[in-house]
């Protein structure tokens, strides 16, 4: 049994979840947002590429977004969702339960970093992932790309737009001749040998040390992490997944009726501005779905009240 009933429960208060809640609350739906307080972008001091919010801190965006949805009457609940029963009953850590006609899951993902010393310590500062998010801020500096996944090749090719001095540390990568030719033609220098650690001094990256003792000076290091969606709630409900991610349509609707997934839990590559747009699109679709149900129930009541006519 639920303690409180809502039209929509949104799980996750990042840009996707908050924007979904904003649109739904403005549509006069009864909305609750439940958030465990573990945003993916917490290590980042700023976010870029979001029109009118360029350079704003993720924490500031969250604070403004929370105030906006609260102003429209949405409930904000700081808690962890432990389980969702079909139907939907959203069960929180501590025993509380929320009833929901529809569910929007915006639980994001976690970045699984390679176990190279120094990477986790500087993550989000000068050990980075997204050139579009951080490339401009480290422009014209000596950059390094750690060859820990196949995505490193594309990263290195792309980063040449921001710096003339880009090194790809081959590490465990197996480069074919075509990749080598593309990298060399693009002006990316290849450094072979295993990586021992990322070296930082005085609160800044200074270089990459190799297993043989060589030190290659760098001021910014990029790495392509393994992105692991926080999709346990979705898969437990039976939402279909392909290639490691939950299947959705363009509005975020999953294969389970009444359940939407938005933001990085559905699209690992979505930036903050993209995630916010996904939340808006899902909210409009959710409201339309609720409207269909409301009208259907109204017609049934009308028929009963009108003697079946």
From TrEMBL:
Pfam families with a match to the protein in the record: Pyr_redox_2
UniProt keyword list: Flavoprotein, Oxidoreductase
Molecular functions per Gene Ontology: thioredoxin-disulfide reductase (NADPH) activity
InterPro entries referenced in this protein's UniProt entry, alphabetically: FAD/NAD-bd_sf, FAD/NAD-binding_dom, Ferredoxin-NADP_redctase_2
Enzyme class, first EC level, given as a word: oxidoreductase
The EC number(s) this enzyme carries: 1.8.1.9
Name of the featured protein: Thioredoxin reductase (NADPH)
Catalyzed reactions per annotation: [thioredoxin]-dithiol + NADP(+) = [thioredoxin]-disulfide + NADPH + H(+)
Superkingdom of origin organism: Bacteria
Residue span(s) of domain FAD/NAD(P)-binding: 6-277
